[in-house]
Amino acid sequence: MCQLVSPEGDPLGAALYLPQNVGPPQLQEIVNHLLHNEDKVPYAFYIGDEELAVQLGTYMQQKNANVEVTLRIVYQPQALFRIRPVNRCSATIAGHQEAVLAVSFSPDGKCLASGSGDTTVRFWDLDTQTPLFTCKGHKNWVLCIAWSPDGKHLVSGSKTGELILWEPKTGKQLGSPLMGHRKWITAVSWEPAHLQAPCRRFVSASKDGDARIWDITTRKCVISLTGHTNSVTCVKWGGDGLIYTGSEDCLIKVWETTQGKLVKTLQGHGHWVNSLALSTEYVLRTGAYDHTGKTYSTAEEMKEAALARYKKMRGNAPERLVSGSDDFTMFLWEPTISKQPKARMTGHQKLVNHVYFSPDGQWLASASFDKSVKLWNGITGKFVAAFRGHVADVYQISWSADSRLLLSGSKDSTLKVWDIRTHKLKQDLPGHADEVYAVDWSPDGEKVASGGKDRVLKLWMN
């Protein structure tokens, strides 16, 4: 007797009697039939936290399971396309004079930007794998960069607290720097494309304790979000139009974006909040662009496409937020529903440096100074697996677009690619001469970029 359940826990029809020789292929047929999917969707099936890879009869025997009890089988949709793991370094590009602190692919995956301690932002040509533009304008280290979801702008924030807007097509600086923050910029996040097209607002977080919303058309700070009593370490602009800020005052604050009013404060962490991630982050980052490579002629078209992608990704569940902290723990929140965390996630032995949801929102990965990367269920927050292999702090992680592979960059000078299904190391990528600070997997899945202390940018392909 089996009950098929969605990842959110909703039963799919009534419980069914299934013969012992039914395995994942037959279950796929059943789920596609019950959901009336005209185009067949691939699914993976889980009993407890384990993927079902054999026929039901074999599973029952292996587990000595009680036939009288209804078996709960969770079906999880998989991406229709497959990303191959990167396995070789295709280019090592010198150019930066100091450590590379940030790397980021454009939403369509066709362009790459980096920010460095040498005060420059650089754009790279991915076809020729050579430098395209070197953008000078900052007076100090470039700590963070962010592409607008329509790919038309890149903003960079520096250690002196200034923000500069660049035009990726030409490498030109747009106007003078945006001034207002009194200390360095820790993070930047753009308003999602489905809320505003063309993209014109972004939010910046700073060590001065404030977050500021800027309008790039008027080139002014339109709203100051003040209320944290210490450095704001991270900021995310959510798909429902709320802004989330995490701070060294141990709090996460939720703001609305028309007047900048504080909506609620999320409490729970016992130390600094280092990283925030949204379950919808991947579609927010890529806006209208998906793996098909479709292009758009108007901002309105992009907005509609972005909205359709966001709605499909979110389904009828609320947007989820996860926070990682110096207190070694993480919290999973559903901020629109409750101020109480949905789950507290423990297991890391040192501070949690970076958290990131998979593009489909089913998984959550965390990187820690305890040398490990951990995998969690993105809906319940339950622990799934620990990836061990790095021999030093793990700084940053990034997902492949199909949610099947995870990339990590570490102080040990290597990148590693992990297989989410087998929980094993898929690829070890040595090559950097020193610590790897920044990694990014392109949204089209073709390339990985990494940068760090050795001042070079590396491109990896499959």
From TrEMBL:
PROSITE patterns in the cross-refs: WD_REPEATS_1 (PS00678), WD_REPEATS_2 (PS50082), WD_REPEATS_REGION (PS50294)
NLE domain mapped to chain residues: 1-60
WD repeat positions: 93-134, 135-176, 178-224, 225-265, 345-386, 387-428, 429-462
Superkingdom field: Eukaryota
Subcellular location: Nucleus, Nucleolus
An annotated GO cellular component: nucleolus
Any Pfam family the entry gives: WD40
Annotated SMART domains: WD40
CDD domains: WD40
Keywords associated with the record: Nucleus, Repeat, WD repeat
Family, similarity comment: Belongs to the NLE1/RSA4 family.
Name under which the protein is recorded: NLE domain-containing protein
UniProt source species: Urochloa decumbens
